[in-house]
Structures are given as C-alpha cells and as structure tokens.
Amino acid sequence: MVKVLFVCLGNICRSPTADGIFRGLVARAGLDKRIEVDSAGTGAWHVGNPPDPRTQKAAEVRGYDLSMLRARQAIEADFHEFDLILAMDHANYNELMSLQPANSKASLRLFLSYAPELGVQEVPDPYYGGDDGFEQVLDLVEAAGENLLAELIKQYKL
Ligand code: 4NP
To answer: What is the domain-level CATH number for residue 147?
Structure first.
C-alpha cells in the first residue's frame, strides 16, 4: 500500500480538496486497494470539522463529494505512517519540516512540485477570498493530482 497525506493549514479547504479529488482519480484508475489517501492541517483550529461549505460546494459541482471528511492535525507519527507527505504551500512545508523526525519514512514535498508546467509552487489559501479562489484550488489540484498518480504508478509499478 502506498500512503499519501495532503497537508494545508486548516485542513478544511485545500488539503480536503486534494484528498477527495485524488481519491477519485485513484478509484477511477482501479487503484484504491494500492493507494491510500488522507489529509491533515498544520493548525488545530478546525479539528473535527467537515470541509468549509464553499470548498464542498465547489468540489460537488465537479463531481467530488467531500462531506465525509473531518479535519485533523498533522502529527509526528504521520512521518512513520505515510510514504509521501505533500504540502500545499511553503509555510505548511516549513511547519512539517520542523515536525519531521530524523528517521522519517515519509518523503516531504510541495504538492505542486509534481506539476512544474503550471508555473506555480503553491496552492493559494482561498479561505479569506472569493469564489474564484476555490475554483483555482480545484484547477491546480486536478492538474497536479493527475501527474502525481502517473508518477506513483511508474515509481511503484502499480
Ligand atoms: P486551508 O484554509 O489551509 O486550505 O484549510 C484555511 C482554513 C482556515 C484557516 C486558514 C486557512 N484559518 O485561519 O482558520
């Protein structure tokens, strides 16, 4: 089993979007027995909450149901549990770096490092902005998610 963890700040907007979309891509490829997907936040404000209603609505329009997801905080043990931990922006990446133990199993990367063709390194935080921010999150996540899946299939010979 290859285990992938998406991480943002609150775990109610960007990383649940990545979680739901990537789960969908994995299921469509028939790989749900080979790839496990989860998400978490570096912050604890929203622990136990479902994704932001704006995030759920935007995802639903594109056919992804995020309603069953609940926010949790990223912990050190995640670095022993997951193979790949993918940060949405540099601030999340730096927070995770300080949580990463010396004997980490997981590789830590920026999620958009899988999509250099996009020309952006970060998935922008949509929380304090308008609806277009949520659409942009979906666009970036769909593109990078396709590349990530192709890369995992190649790397792990799935
Ligand atoms: P996310 O967005 O990191 O994409 O889940 C945010 C959600 C909530 C907050 C910040 C970012 N907040 O400050 O409460």
So the answer is: 3.40.50.2300
